[in-house]
Design a protein that fits this description.
about 110 residues, 3-stranded antiparallel beta sheet, about 60% helix
Length: about 110
């Protein structure tokens, strides 16, 4: 047997030692991937910036006609259950109703004393 120093590394061994895996590119978000994910999950698409809910069909139609899939806009979209939107709207209405009742009470009390 030869001493280790005298044994040459094969070309394949050299490549293996210097191998660095390529970083895979971040998956791009497209209007079609958002549509497909929402459709598969039976959920809607929500844009938190403009607080707008869309069915997958409404979303894809709007994307075809208007924005053409602006990546910055697509990244902020969320796929959610529309019941979450109904619950949030109900809470906002309840809060508004409570504030209105307090205001009405203040107005009535004010004019009783005047």
């Amino acid at each position: 047997m030869k001493p280790k120093e005298l044994i040459r590394e094969s070309e394949m061994e050299k490549r293996w030692k210097s191998y660095k895996p390529e970083e895979l590119p971040k998956p791009t978000v497209t209007n079609f991937t958002i549509y497909e994910q929402a459709k598969a999950a039976k959920q809607w698409i929500y844009d938190p910036e403009i607080k707008r809910w869309q069915t997958p069909e409404e979303f894809i139609e709007l994307e075809k006609r208007i924005s053409g899939g602006d990546p910055k806009r697509l990244e902020r979209l969320q796929i959610k259950d529309p019941i979450e939107g109904i619950n949030a709207a109900y809470e906002q209405l309840q809060s508004l109703k409570d504030r209105m009742e307090v205001f009405v009470k203040r107005v009535v009390e004010y004019y009783k004393t005047v």
